[in-house]
Write a structure and sequence with these properties.
132 residues, alpha/beta
Length: 132
């Protein structure tokens, strides 16, 4: 009997369809993962609880709930308190980065990084047993 391993799941919470689409394509092709998308914080929180992803890629600036608040809520939820969370945002001030790590982000990249660098970080996070 053969057992098929379940694909890892990545939730992208970003209201900008362009980077969301690029990440989706990269994740499916290079990482062979199931991608779940949310365009705002409220829907992101719902999707996180429904799908229990292995990794959440979270934008800071969202139309309803700011990503930093979404991060805080995710860390309080039983299902997502240990989920790996990558903040991928245009915000690059040291105070923002510090706040994200203080609230439980596992990694922080600015959107100015190339897809190659973000892909390497995503691969590292998906395959790191210490973050789960």
């Amino acid at each position: 009997m053969f057992f098929i391993a379940n694909k890892k799941k990545v939730l992208i919470i970003d209201d900008n369809p362009s980077p969301q689409r690029l990440l989706h394509i990269r994740l499916k092709i290079h990482h062979n993962v199931k991608v779940i998308k949310a365009m705002d914080g409220k829907n992101g929180l719902i999707q996180a609880n429904v799908h229990n992803p292995d990794l959440i890629i979270l934008e800071w600036t969202l139309p309803d709930i700011q990503g930093i608040e979404v991060l805080e809520r995710l860390r309080c939820e039983r299902k997502t308190k240990n989920t790996s969370i990558l903040i991928l945002t245009g915000r690059n001030k040291p105070g923002n980065i510090e706040d994200a790590f203080n609230l439980g982000a596992d990694a922080y990249l600015t959107k100015m990084v190339s897809l190659l660098i973000s892909g390497k970080k995503i691969d590292e996070m998906l395959n790191s047993p210490s973050l789960h």
